[in-house]
Design a protein that fits this description.
By secondary structure, this protein is of the alpha+beta class. Helices cover 56% and strands 16% of the residues. A hairpin with a 2-residue loop joins strand 3 and strand 4. Helix 4 packs antiparallel against helix 5 and helix 9 packs across helix 10. The chain is elongated and about 95 Å long. The N and C termini lie far apart (82 Å).
């Protein structure tokens, strides 16, 4: 039976038949099925938990690479003799740009990205371990290596498809002047990201406080920084914020659970302070993992209609801080009722 042409109206695709088209996708499907079967076999063969955490991810990445680039190579070799694959549809400075050339350029970029990510994930950690490189420093080095390699890969790809990098630079310069005012915030965040990566005022893994929310920095990008908090989810903070605003770095600081109460005038101030310490001590003993340091209560301020007291207890992490503050408030409420201590009817301004 004669094969029908799939793209009869397009000159460069007239030689592609329906049978060839579906056979290609059949082979592609077999590649994906083969990758899936290989992953199942690896999971059964690598039964040791330690190997599953360290070896299996590497083998899984290799299988994904084989499947991805195997599919592209299948595409190239299967249609190698087709005119539509090699026929240039655009020519510049003596370079004929064809589908084959574009596919090769994309392969260079994607392959460079995969290789450098694998290099940073599986090779560089051993190097950093040998030289005792800090987490923040290693993250900065990884990002710089990635950006340099990807810039070179893109430059090679542009050159391969006949784009003059000098012309591209001129175009971006003109566009930069035209839209500079519209994207000045993006440019400022980009420059701030570079400053953060080099100066490292804060690093990946450190605890910071932003708008009264405490979280851990998990990623520093060129435009923004990702901060993971316990209760408020993920914060995407523009890098310019870290350069222009005062950001509290909580990593090296001692962390305290603090509770502030405002009581009426006429209350026994010594009794209030003692009750606050008693409430904090009771909850510190009940909660596991809290350091054994004695809580401290202070008479911190006078208000027009109240007296403000503060009690604080040493904690080791933010989650413990929130839980202990809640428990201390419960104990304070119970002890105040027992001893007839009344809270101020109009509480003053809260202290941080």
């Amino acid at each position: 039976m004669q094969n029908q042409q799939l793209f009869e109206g397009i000159d460069v695709l007239r030689t592609l038949s329906i049978t060839e088209f579906f056979l290609f996708f059949l082979y592609l499907f077999l590649i994906l099925i083969g990758k899936w079967i290989a992953q199942l076999i690896l999971k059964r063969v690598i039964a040791h938990e330690g190997y599953q955490e360290r070896v299996y991810p590497i083998l899984e990445d290799i299988l994904n690479w084989i499947a991805f680039y195997g599919s592209i190579l299948l595409f190239l070799f299967y249609f190698w003799q087709e005119d539509w694959l090699t026929t240039p549809f655009y020519e510049t400075e003596g370079v004929g740009v064809s589908i084959l050339l574009i596919v090769v350029a994309i392969m260079i970029v994607t392959f460079s990205s995969r290789v450098i990510k694998a290099f940073n994930n599986f090779v560089m950690p051993h190097v950093y371990g040998q030289f005792d490189v800090e987490t923040g420093t290693s993250y900065t080095i990884n990002r710089l290596i990635y950006y340099v390699v990807m810039f070179l890969a893109l430059a090679v790809s542009f050159t391969l498809v006949g784009l003059d990098l000098r012309a591209v630079g001129v175009i971006f310069s003109v566009l930069g002047i035209g839209i500079g005012f519209g994207v000045r915030n993006i440019a400022a965040n980009f420059v701030s990201g570079i400053i953060i990566l080099f100066e490292r005022p804060m690093e990946v893994g450190e605890m910071v406080e932003i708008d009264k929310k405490i979280g851990r920095i998990t990623k520093i990008k060129l435009r923004s920084t990702i901060v993971e908090t316990l209760k408020d989810g993920t914060l995407v903070v523009p890098n310019q914020y870290f350069i222009e605003q005062i950001v509290k770095n909580r990593s090296g600081a001692r962390l305290f659970a603090r509770v502030i109460v405002s009581v009426e005038y006429g209350c026994d101030t010594e009794l209030v302070a003692n009750l606050l310490v008693q409430a904090a001590e009771r909850e510190v003993v009940r909660m596991e993992g809290v350091p054994g340091e004695k809580p401290d209560a202070q008479f911190i301020d006078f208000r027009n209609s109240s007296m403000d007291f503060q009690v604080e207890a040493r904690v080791t992490n933010v989650e413990m801080k929130d839980q202990l503050e809640s428990r201390i408030r419960h104990s304070i409420a119970e002890l105040f009722v027992e001893h007839g201590i009344r809270l101020a009817s109009l509480p003053g301004e809260r202290y941080q």
